[in-house]
Structures are given as C-alpha cells and as structure tokens.
C-alpha cells in the first residue's frame, strides 16, 4: 500500500515537472537569454572602455555608476517579457542584490568552479513554479573576474580609485577578487504562459 502510494506520488510529480514547459519553448528562451547576455555584455564593456579612455578608472566609475543600470534595463525586452539583471554575492551596487533562487545558483556556480568546470561557459536554466502557480523561465550565466576588472574589483586598488568607489558605494563589498574568481552572474527571467 505504502509502496503504491509512493509510486503514484512519484509519477504525478515527474509528469508535472515534465509538463512545466515544452522543450521548444525552453530552447527558444535559452537562445534569447544568451543573446540578451551577449548584447548587455557588449554594451557595458563599451561604456567601461569609453569611461577609461576619457579619464581613467575614476571617470569610468562615474560612468558605470550612472550608466550601468539604464543600459541593463534597455536590454530587457518588454515585448517578449524578458528581464535581465546583473547580480553578485559580493555587491557594489545594492540594486544588484540576488534573490534566494539566484543565491542558490551562484553558490552552485562556485561549487562547479571548485570542481574544475570553466566559469567562461558556465550557465544554468530552470523552470521555476511560483507560489501563485505561475511558471517562470530562469537563466543564469556566470561572470568571471578577469585582469582588466582588477583596477576596480581586485586586491590592490589605487587610493584615488578606492576613495571614489567608497564615495559612491559606502557599503561596497566588491573588492578583493582575483582573476578567475566568480564575480557574479547575468540573470534572466521570463514569465511562461
Ligand atoms: C572602472 C572601474 C570598474 C572596472 C574596471 C570594472 N567594474 Fe564592475 N563595477 C564597477 C562599478 C562602479 C559598479 C557598480 C555600478 C553598476 O554596475 O551597477 C560595478 C558593478 C559590477 C557588477 C554588478 C554587481 C555589483 O556588485 O553591483 C558586476 C557583475 C561587475 N561590476 C563585474 C565586472 C567585471 C567582470 C569587470 C571586468 C571585465 C568589471 N566589473 C570591471 C566598476 C568597475
């Protein structure tokens, strides 16, 4: 009796998880998410490089603090309902705080990286059922720290740069990274029908 009940529960839960969304819809959403990440990465890099060329790291910090959020919002697509953000476990901008699901996936990324997987290609996607019953497609792509990031996120930061960071972000936690560390992730969310 117990065994039969258990196998019924198992069958029902397996069937419902398979029905969460169809495979075509998922692969379209994964492709759209990768595209959005690529677009956002290119735009942010452009703003950073322009800022650095204009007046070095302190000018680039000013540029990033004013432009990073509007640029990020501009890549979200109201037409398709796709939303993209940048998140981290060690924050500079409090607007980029991760939610509980994102924290869990970032921790999994850390573990996957520690087990030898490359951060350069690391991603995760999942259909998450909300409390109200709606289904969300969620996608995350790791952001590795690399050498050029060290000027503003590394272990040894020039005094004027650090002063500028502290002035804009008094609660900054986003220093002390080494090249190859997990800096954060791009996170995409889209409501499914
Ligand atoms: C000129 C200084 C500067 C450099 C260089 C820099 N950043 Fe940042 N970074 C910032 C500032 C300022 C913010 C906060 C503004 C924002 O982006 O929302 C930030 C925020 C971030 C965030 C969002 C999470 C958070 O903590 O708010 C990520 C992810 C990030 N940077 C990754 C990188 C990576 C990866 C590189 C190297 C490719 C890099 N940064 C290089 C200044 C810099």
Question: What are the key terms here?
Answer:
binds heme C, 193 residues, four-stranded antiparallel β-sheet
Written description of the protein model:
- The structure is a single chain.
- This protein is an alpha+beta fold and 193 residues long.
- It has 5 helices and 4 strands; from the N terminus they run ααβαββααβ.
- A 4-stranded antiparallel β-sheet has the order 1-4-3-2, with helices on both faces.
- A hairpin with a 5-residue loop joins β2 and β3 (135-144).
- α2 (23-75) crosses α5.
- The longest helix has 53 residues, at 23-75.
- The protein starts with a helix and ends with a strand.
- Mean pLDDT is 91; it is low at 8-17.
- Heme C binds at residues 48, 57, 60-61, 64-65, 68-69, 86, 88, 91-93, 96, 143, 145-146, 148-149, 151-153, 174, 183-184.
- Residues 48, 57, 60-61, 64-65, 68-69, 86, 88, 91-93, 96, 143, 145-146, 148-149, 151-153, 174, 183-184 line the site of heme C (HEC).
Helix and strand layout, with pairings?
Layout (H helix, E strand, L loop, with lengths): L1 H17 L4 H53 L7 E5 L12 H15 L8 E7 L5 E10 L5 H4 L5 H10 L13 E11 L1
Antiparallel strand pairs: 1-4, 2-3, 3-4
Helix pairs in contact: 2-5
Bound molecules: heme C.
Summarize the structure in short:
This protein has five helices and four strands. The protein has 193 residues and is of the alpha+beta class. The protein has one domain.
Largest sheet features: 4 strands, antiparallel
What is the helix fraction of residues, given as a range?
Answer: 40-55%
Global Rg: 20 Å
Distance between the termini: 37 Å
- Sheet with most strands: strand arrangement: 1-4-3-2
Order of helices and strands: HHEHEEHHE
Q: How many H/I helical runs? A: 5
Q: Which structural class do you get from the secondary structure elements?
A: alpha+beta
By DSSP, the count of extended strands is 4
* Small molecules (ligands, ions, cofactors) in the structure: heme C
Shape descriptor:
globular
Q: Per DSSP, what share of the residues sits in E-state strands of 2 or more residues?
A: 15-25%
- Average pLDDT: 91
Total domain units: 1
Give the low-pLDDT segments. Answer: 8-17
């Amino acid at each position: 009796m117990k065994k039969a009940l258990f196998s019924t529960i198992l069958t029902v839960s397996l069937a419902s998880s398979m029905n969460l969304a169809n495979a075509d819809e998922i692969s379209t959403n994964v492709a759209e998410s990768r595209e959005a990440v690529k677009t956002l990465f290119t735009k942010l890099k452009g703003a950073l490089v322009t800022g650095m060329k204009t007046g070095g790291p302190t000018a680039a910090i000013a540029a990033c603090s004013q432009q990073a959020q509007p640029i990020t919002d501009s890549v979200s697509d109201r037409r398709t309902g796709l939303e993209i953000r940048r998140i981290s476990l060690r924050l500079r901008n409090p607007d980029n705080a991760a939610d509980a699901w994102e924290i869990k996936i970032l921790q999994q990324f850390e573990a996957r990286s520690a087990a030898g997987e490359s951060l350069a290609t690391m991603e995760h996607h999942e259909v998450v059922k909300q409390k109200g019953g709606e289904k969300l497609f969620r996608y995350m792509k790791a952001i590795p720290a690399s050498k050029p990031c060290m000027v503003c996120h590394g272990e040894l930061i020039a005094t004027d740069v650090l002063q500028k960071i502290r002035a804009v972000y008094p609660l900054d936690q986003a220093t002390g990274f080494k090249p190859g560390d997990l800096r954060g992730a791009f996170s995409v969310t889209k409501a499914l029908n």
